[in-house]
Amino acid sequence: MSSKQVYILDTTLRDGQQSPGAGMSFEDNLQYAELAHKLRIDILEAGFPSASNTDFAIVNQISKNMAAINSAMRISALCQLREEQVIRTMEALAPSLAIGKARIHIYVPVDPELMPASLGKFAEDKPAIITTTYRLIKMMADAGFEVEFSPEGYSRQRENFDFVTDLIRNAVKAGATTINCPDTIGGASQYQGEEYFVHKMAKHKQIIETEFPDKDIIWSMHCHNDFGTALDNSLYGVFSGVARQIEGCINGVGERAGNVSLEQCIMVIRQFGHGAHLPEKYHTNIDISHLKEISDFIAERMLPRQPHSPVVGKNSASHTSGGHINAILKNPLAYQPFDPRDIGSEITFVFGPLSGSNHAQQIIHKFKYRCDDNEKVAVTQSIKDFYADRRKGVTDEELLQAYKYYRSPIKLEHLTYAKEDGGKTRVTFHGEFFAEKDLVIDYQGRGSALSALNKAVNNHLANTTVVDYNSHSKGSTVDALCISSIIIDVNGNRYNGQAEDEDIEISALKAFIDAVNNAYIETNFRV
Ligand SMILES: CC(=O)SCCNC(=O)CCNC(=O)[C@H](O)C(C)(C)COP(=O)(O)OP(=O)(O)OC[C@H]1O[C@@H](n2cnc3c(N)ncnc32)[C@H](O)[C@@H]1OP(=O)(O)O
């Protein structure tokens, strides 16, 4: 069976920017259009040219840019049922008209509650609304524009069904080729029964098909998400065979709770559009490999995106729980409904308190250190203890630090030193020192506390010598911290250590311990 294309109208630049704080710069609007072109959006609603000179310039420049590359994407712009707006919108879209890719989207309210609020006295004169609709649409169609007509508030038309029929009839007669039926206030649900607007669309569609058998009108969904039903409504319209166009915004931005998320519609059509039970098969022309890119753009330049946003959210392909990661390590798609690489994303992991030993082991192996199966649980527990207060997780590099601490033979808690007359130095060490705990190191002869510690280390790591050492102050005051760097040689191999402390001698001792720990770990646990 052949598959029907569902047209995607992207109104991110128009309806998306109609929410507080969502406005983007002139340049960002133009850049977004480039991304929409790459994504192979069918129709880009680029703005509302009559809103301001800048909005006119944005639409006009996008229209010019897309005409210059002969983009297959239609450029659309919105206007009210007002002649001066129609003229301004036609001017803005002139470059797209020249390549046969210009659409004008014109709207007038039909919701009985919205009509007087929005239109004032004009709302009382329905015949005038109908004749104006016919006249303005004919004007645009005669000028060569593709026309989309929206009876605004369609989903709440109530007793206005016959008025809406008359409006649509006249719009089609005048040359409109797309009839968009918005759930403007976002309150519709298929659980409304006969009042559900998609059932009314089916009736209107049937009337128009009967009256205009030669016209192939595209019926369109435009759903807001006030109750979170925008996706369900949009897809109901398509999968029930009524609609062939979906209007929405990337990341579901838009007025109030937003418009339907285009990425969700696109992926659901891809996933379920060929279901055996569907009367017809459906697909979109979207190049989904650019979905993540365009979504990230909107998240950065327009409005922030929830981490758990479906399809594109940062967490939608990121995992932390041990149970899931264990399975994903064996089968990357074990916990993904689609391959994130298809949309330009990737599966990532964040190690946290709920992660497991297979995950920790994989990170440690990635850095090329040893973590055997019989010790991975103990290693993992020590890493979790090390980061007991990091409930939101740690980076792989931070995990490696905790691993190294676990492997370190010297775990310093506290250290003091004293010098006596006669060349005696005493270092008092608290913590773990190879297999020992809390020791006192006495050293007799020339040299500092560092010599004392070096002597003690040599009992466990033979042939350890300091080959380079320097300390410098971190600031210019007398109480500035001291930073020490040290290089040691162990059996011909060199290892670095760094540390800082208020006391120059202790900073050197700590740097030496750091270097010894590095030497021990690199010697014993490097793969
Ligand atoms: C569902 C939707 O998303 S619809 C899109 C809504 N988008 C926008 O409003 C964004 C851009 N809007 C704007 O910049 C401005 O509102 C403009 C330029 C469109 C209009 O501005 P103004 O005329 O200066 O003021 P205002 O917005 O208050 O408009 C009120 C007038 O529009 C008329 N009007 C409202 N909707 C419509 C309509 N669909 N068709 C015809 N006239 C309309 C009203 O009757 C009213 O007329 P009046 O001034 O004679 O009383």
TrEMBL record:
PROSITE patterns xref list: PYR_CT (PS50991)
GO BP of this protein: L-leucine biosynthetic process
GO molecular function: 2-isopropylmalate synthase activity; metal ion binding
Species annotation: Aquella oligotrophica
Family statement: Belongs to the alpha-IPM synthase/homocitrate synthase family. LeuA type 1 subfamily.
Classification via SMART domains: LeuA_dimer
Domain Pyruvate carboxyltransferase: residue ranges: 6-292
Key words, A-Z: Amino-acid biosynthesis, Branched-chain amino acid biosynthesis, Leucine biosynthesis, Manganese, Metal-binding, Transferase
Record PANTHER family: 2-ISOPROPYLMALATE SYNTHASE 1, CHLOROPLASTIC-RELATED, HOMOCITRATE SYNTHASE-RELATED
UniProt cross-references to InterPro entries, sorted A to Z: 2-IPM_HCS-like, 2-isopropylmalate_synth_dimer, Aldolase_TIM, LeuA/HCS_post-cat, LeuA_allosteric_dom_sf, PYR_CT
Listed Pfam families: HCS_D2 (PF22617), HMGL-like (PF00682), LeuA_dimer (PF08502)
Domain of life: Bacteria
Protein name in UniProt: 2-isopropylmalate synthase
